[in-house]
Amino acid sequence: MARILVVDDEEDIRDALAEILEDEGHDVFEAENGAEVMAMAVSARIDLILLDMAMPVMNGFEVMEQLNRDAQTACIPVIVITGLGRPDHLDDARRLGTIDYINKPWADDEVQMRVDWALNGKRSETEAV
What we know:
- Helix content is about 45%, strand content about 20%.
- It is α/β, with parallel strands linked by helices.
- The chain has a single domain, classed as Rossmann fold (3-Layer(aba) Sandwich).
- The chain has a 5-stranded parallel β-sheet, sandwiched between helices.
- It starts with a strand and ends with a helix.
- The model has no long low-confidence stretch (mean pLDDT about 90).
């Protein structure tokens, strides 16, 4: 299965997402702030990032900008996890390349559905190349 990085400053959120993803057979890595993302994304060869937008140290927008600037991480799909479902935040996240978003609190099975969609889309692109 996939190697997924869950980035959120709230441990309860990371734990809940990790449990959902591990139950689906994924390898889950966790970061509690944006500053940890780059090194982990490269060293763990991450396939997908679930990224909170409102975090200390480095917010999700800054993380996405940094991911986009690095050739090793620019192709990693990002799903935004947010409690800030404001249209301007979502537009900014789309502009920075997020492929999807999940509002907190999420609906039953929503995380699995969106992760499956993101990973299957990535596989299709890879196979087409």
